[in-house]
Amino acid sequence: MAGTSAPVEVEPHLDHTDVDHDTDDVPATTHDSEERVPTRRFLIGLAATLVIAITAAVTAGISWTNLRAEQNAQSRDEQVLETARQVVVNLVTLRHQSVDEDIQRVADGTTGPFRDQFTSASGSFGDVLNQGQVESTGEVKEAGLIEADNDHAVVLAAVTSTVKNTEAPDGEIRVYRMKVSLDSVDGNWLVSDVEFVA
């Protein structure tokens, strides 16, 4: 028909005034929190690992120090016992044929007032050995450490000796118990006193 016009399509009117396009006002805490949580967990885990590593290192260091101290103490005790045994054997192993050498051997293993007393009496002691034709041979049956530190030690020794002289040509067995004190002198253990005990 001539007077009829085509329908006009009208676009719906959208009111853009209610839509906020400003994204700067949108809170960003959700995204930041998601990033911060893994970072915080990582740092906590790293700190825990470091604490464990430090603790392990300290423990290992203490264990090593204790082991070294134990080994040093054991080595010291062995030296103390060896020295005590040798000096005691020297004390009860004296022969008129080698009196000077025997007395000097005892003196070399001693120190302090005990050494002074022994050496000062060595002349008369040698006379007794020569007059009686004494031959004494000794050995340590047992020796035990009573106390020890890095400067001083005490050893108890059970000693026997076979003594031959003009009165006992076949020899007599004698038994002694000796309390031996030792001092560390310039890194060497020397006997500083000997007591005969019951």
Helices, strands, pairings?
Blueprint: H1 29-91, E1 94-95, H2 99-108, H3 112-120, H4 122-132, E2 135-148, E3 152-164, E4 172-185, E5 188-196
Antiparallel strand pairs: 1-2, 2-3, 3-4, 4-5
Helix pairs in contact: 1-2
Mean pLDDT across the residues is 82
- Largest beta-sheet characterization: 5 strands, antiparallel
Radius of gyration: 46 Å
* Overall number of strands: 5
Helix content: 40-55%
Total DSSP helices? 4
Q: Give me the secondary-structure category.
A: alpha+beta
Which percent band covers the strand fraction?
25-35%
User: What is the CA–CA distance across the termini?
Assistant: 151 Å
User: Spans with pLDDT under 50 lasting ≥5 residues?
Assistant: 1-5, 16-23, 26-30
Strand/helix succession: HEHHHEEEE
Instruction: Write out the strand line-up for the largest beta sheet, numbering strands in chain order.
Output: 1-2-3-4-5
What best-fitting shape do the alpha-carbon axes yield? rod-shaped
Summarize this structure as a short list of keywords or feature phrases.
5-stranded antiparallel sheet, alpha+beta, rod-shaped, 198 residues
